[in-house]
Amino acid sequence: MGMWVGRGRKARRCYGFDEVALVPGSVTINPNEVDIHWEVGGIKFDIPLLAAAMDGVVDPKFAIAMGKLGGIAVMNLEGVYVRYENPYEIVEKIINTSADEATHILQTLYTEPIKKELITSRIKEIKSAGVPAVVSTIPQRAYELGKIAEDAGADILVVQSTVTTVRHISTEYETVDFTKLKKMLSIPIIVGNCVTYNTTLELMQTGIDGLLIGVGPGAACTTRGVLGIGVPQVTATADAAAARDFYYKQSGRYVPIITDGGMSTGGDICKAFASGADAAMVGSAFAKTHEAPGRGHHWGMATPHANLPRGTRIKVGSTGSLKQILFGPAVLDDGSQNLIGALRTSMGNCGAQNIREMQVTELIIAPAIKSEGKVFQQQQHVGMGK
After folding, report:
1. Among all residues, which ones are annotated catalytic?
2. What is the CATH number of domain 19-368?
């Protein structure tokens, strides 16, 4: 299947969140009675949302707050919190620099070496609050930083890059062997990112415990513009879910997939689960919380890249507390608050008692879903017209 884009060349039609809608079920359920828990590596979490490993979003204090509310906040082991004794001075510099200078400042500040003792102290700070410590690293440093993190008491390691594959070719550095990494560490390992069926399947066959899905859709990410690569999230998630289900039938081992990026409202998150996700990783929505260290500013992990930045610093504003963003009450009309309430209500209306049932909700192609009947909202820039 596909559409001709030239002589002998076809391209597959893919879909993003704005192009699809969910069909209500023939049975509806009280939103308070749906089950939204999920598991990764045998660890159970009350809410299926992860805060992305971005320095404007997650510091140890945010990780503690998120953990106490039942979710996961991933701290970047290559961010400012493990490079500087006083990282908040550095965050202030990033926040206060001009838009024209932001990328250069980030590139400069992130040349400070990572300090192993700071990795240990930040993880212990999170653990001392009685919540899980979840941390991330790039594949090239997974062996080294993964071991340090595990020894410090980390509960889950996320190994994350723009595009992750099992078969990575390089003569400049040692490529990570995920099968070897799994044998080396005793904690669960989540790997990302990918967007295709075959790569999802190959990564799951290495023994990893979870997989991040998404290339380039994040609010602060410019990968799609810089590199021209990416697959819209509905299609990427559905393809990965198909690989997950095939692998489960083949092996008897269920590996959850986590849609990562491109979701700014409750509706987007609901569509991610209906596309097949087990959980969702969000950055900009949590960057808007009062607890986020970036105070309404947001930048990606690849933004400070020395040669080819694939992100930018953006201002999203501070609109509410973390609890308000997650559980309400919402005071904004744009779907950016009470994300868990939105998920529960959507599941109830679709007749899904749990996440697995939500994954098979009927999807329809609906290009008019955001504009149909919304002329006044669009004219007045309120609600869905913002």
Report:
1. 221, 223
2. 3.20.20.70
